[in-house]
Design a protein that fits this description.
- This protein is an alpha/beta fold and about 150 residues long.
- Among the domains are: about 70-100, no CATH class; about 105-145, no CATH class.
- Helix content is about 30%, strand content about 25%.
- It has five helices and nine strands; from the N terminus they run βββααβαβαββββα.
- The chain has helices at about 45-55, 60-65, 75-85, 100-105, 140-150, and strands at about 15, 25, 35-40, 65-75, 90-95, 110, 115, 120, 130-135.
- The strands form three sheets. It has a five-stranded mixed sheet. Strands 1-2 form a two-stranded antiparallel ribbon. Strands 6-7 form a two-stranded antiparallel ribbon.
- The longest helix has 13 residues, at about 140-150.
- The radius of gyration is 14 Å and the shape is globular.
- The protein starts with 14 loop residues before the first strand and ends with a helix.
Amino acid sequence: MKEGVKEGDVAPDFELPVEGGEKVRLSDFRGKKTVVLYFYPKDGSPGCTKEACAFRDNYEQFKDAGAEVLGVSSDTLESHGLFSVKLGLPFKLLSDEGGKVRKLYGVPSSLGIVPGRVTYVIDKEGIVRYIFNSQIDAEKHMEESLRIVRSLA
């Protein structure tokens, strides 16, 4: 069994759809922006709503530090669209139906069933600089990410 991505690794490239038919590739940001890639369990659940709102409320600070935020879950594009509109999210939610990218990164499940909540901060060169894994402390994902992003700016 593969261990997954570790700090210092080159972040595996991927392409996932976002609502509206667009596809987002991680490599599109290389050389341009730091990427905060956060995997979360489920659109609309209490923890995921808190996490998304924390990233939303601080999005300008991420942008000012030269970073882009991308949320990833296995929910459908339709579910992402509703969740995004309801919360007024300024960043993209990527649909990883089937969990291929989650597996590629080695994001663990909690209790073997709930998709994990893990955030990766990937620098402009595509290197994973920080990984934060906490299923319950949803809002801390934003705080930790912003701290690292600022240190890279």
